[in-house]
């Protein structure tokens, strides 16, 4: 049956910053398209909002179907690395010919059940793609463009050979309107500062990623979209591995001294090796005195109180503890096991004086983060500062706990800094519980930062989306 070209019922709109002050996003109501067919049934696909932040839920509704009609909803993304990612769910319309993805369950596909955001977090590379891929945003001032399409019947493959009944192109942004990007290269500190719109001053967050190195900006950009001046710090490169604690202290001071940053509202947020740096700084540094910190799947077993080289020396010393699974994917969690009973071998978490939020993926195959959290809890309890510790522990979640609706990667390609050795690391986790961990932990991280970094209701209203 021939299909006519889809026509847009609601046109595009211009982005503005009004919604950052608590109003409704200007793109609400955009994203409705119809594909006209020769039959009397003209499916109407609506995705709202069509443009929104990556951590914002969308609502997908399909109308004008036949009663109890079987259809497939599919998402497709063409990444900056030129790879295609997809997810799909099988649905059956109700007696009125309507499918509401928020309320109705997928009966098959890459996700099953009532999963409103399954078309994002269950994305995988399309069949025939390169192996070991990971989806990461590089240019945060360009959106993740995701095409949502509907197909007749329950389809699981061969989408390129089938014409869609209706299609909507959506945009998912890490930067809200008005967010500024500032290159930082001062006092030997390199990174990117993201500033929220408005006069400030804003709470400051030093954002630290892991051992993969390079400059990773997308989480910092998203934090700025929620009202935080966030510095994405570059601290590992192939020719610069011997990074001293003074480098992180300088970065903290650069952020703290910025004229749009409130110097008494500071936080550290780290993942993996960045979490080890975070814990070391808040426990040992006399310069870094934040109001709170967040550690995502890190450990206190690798104190970075001399240089980052300590961590790599520890890896090399314990390389024999690393094993591989049946697919030859490296399992790294054993390299810090068993956890030493000698306090001198660990970060002195008993001396931490600010609130700490630990996010733990219980199926983390890269680090022994669950065992580390248990040992940290015991150490802080003995020291009498366990009232400062909050632990979020997620069964079935892996190592790479990222902002909500990021696809889950159980394994991916990885290059160890300081060498040209390319391997495949097993991060762990299972798709659905990992997706839950990402959504739940991000919400609680934002609440944690709000609780400890905001001082007045006026400021809260200014920073709130």
Automatic annotation (TrEMBL):
<feature type="domain" description="Acyl-CoA thioester hydrolase/bile acid-CoA amino acid N-acetyltransferase">
    <location>
        <begin position="55"/>
        <end position="186"/>
    </location>
</feature>
<dbReference type="InterPro" id="IPR029058">
    <property type="entry name" value="AB_hydrolase_fold"/>
</dbReference>
<dbReference type="GO" id="GO:0047617">
    <property type="term" value="F:fatty acyl-CoA hydrolase activity"/>
</dbReference>
<comment type="similarity">
    <text>Belongs to the C/M/P thioester hydrolase family.</text>
</comment>
<dbReference type="GO" id="GO:0006631">
    <property type="term" value="P:fatty acid metabolic process"/>
</dbReference>
<feature type="active site" description="Charge relay system">
    <location>
        <position position="272"/>
    </location>
</feature>
<feature type="active site" description="Charge relay system">
    <location>
        <position position="364"/>
    </location>
</feature>
<dbReference type="Pfam" id="PF08840">
    <property type="entry name" value="BAAT_C"/>
</dbReference>
<dbReference type="InterPro" id="IPR042490">
    <property type="entry name" value="Thio_Ohase/BAAT_N"/>
</dbReference>
<dbReference type="Pfam" id="PF04775">
    <property type="entry name" value="Bile_Hydr_Trans"/>
</dbReference>
<dbReference type="InterPro" id="IPR016662">
    <property type="entry name" value="Acyl-CoA_thioEstase_long-chain"/>
</dbReference>
<dbReference type="GO" id="GO:0006637">
    <property type="term" value="P:acyl-CoA metabolic process"/>
</dbReference>
<protein>
    <submittedName>
        <fullName>Uncharacterized protein</fullName>
    </submittedName>
</protein>
<feature type="domain" description="BAAT/Acyl-CoA thioester hydrolase C-terminal">
    <location>
        <begin position="246"/>
        <end position="454"/>
    </location>
</feature>
<dbReference type="InterPro" id="IPR006862">
    <property type="entry name" value="Thio_Ohase/aa_AcTrfase"/>
</dbReference>
<feature type="active site" description="Charge relay system">
    <location>
        <position position="399"/>
    </location>
</feature>
<dbReference type="InterPro" id="IPR014940">
    <property type="entry name" value="BAAT_C"/>
</dbReference>
